[in-house]
Design goal:
Chain lengths: 114, 115
């Protein structure tokens, strides 16, 4: 069964610095997708970035990039130039059962300080 | 509105009572999902609808949980004989068939507290 592991319960970063949030996964599927979602205190899950298992290039979306290392089964999220509004919970997730549902990790709480 | 709407945002009930949670997805989205998020955990899959039918209900924990989507838009998650362990945030999400990545758009959730 698919499993996502996020080993950092909390991370601190200063404004304008870069931060890496770790994510490792376990799957026997050949084709899968990896996602990162942000969950601010409002509770809504906000899609940040997607990486397909066959994508050769690392995904990037503005200040977000996904460091995909397939052999190591890791999909770390890199946030460049952190902003105060980046303070939130961040969840790594992967597809299960043919992309019809997601399995989530336990999340990392990011705090950006001025 | 433009996003996924969930009501109520908060629900407090007593053990043994019946609860309904409503989700109004983004207009035109054919896929609808329910997830449950317990304190300190990531969301866990409950059920997935494609149109009016439940395509996958393997995440429903037991037969006290049931969900419907009779007209292929609004969905209702129904919980009978609530237990304290049902306390969680219930998240609804929708997606478009044309979403290449299967990106899900989530609502803000319904926080259920069972006393």
């Amino acid at each position: 069964a698919q499993k996502i592991t996020q080993t950092q319960p909390g991370m601190f970063v200063q404004e304008k610095e870069a931060v890496t949030l770790d994510c490792t996964y376990d799957t026997s599927d050949q084709s899968y997708g990896l996602f990162w979602y942000k969950q601010p205190s409002s509770g809504e899950m906000i899609f940040l970035i997607y990486q397909g298992s066959y994508d050769e290039q690392n995904a990037t979306e503005g200040r977000y990039s996904l460091n995909f290392q397939k052999a190591r089964k890791s999909a770390n999220l890199v946030i460049s130039a952190s902003q105060l509004g980046d303070s939130a919970m961040y969840f790594c997730a992967m597809t299960q059962a043919g992309f019809q549902k997601l399995v989530f990790g336990t999340g990392t709480r990011l705090l950006v300080s001025p | 509105g433009a996003g996924v709407s969930q009501t109520p945002s908060n629900k407090v009930t007593e053990k043994g009572k019946y609860v309904e949670l409503r989700c109004d997805p983004i207009s035109g989205h054919t896929a609808l999902y329910w997830y449950r998020q317990s304190l300190g955990q990531g969301p866990e899959f409950l059920i997935y609808f494609q149109g009016t039918g439940a395509a996958d209900d393997s995440g429903l924990p037991n037969d006290r949980f049931f969900a419907v989507r009779p007209e292929g838009s609004v969905s209702t998650l129904k919980i009978q004989r609530t237990e304290r362990g049902d306390s969680a945030v219930y998240l609804c999400a929708s997606s478009s068939d044309r979403a290449v990545t299967g990106e899900l758009f989530f609502g803000e959730g319904s926080r259920l507290t069972v006393l």
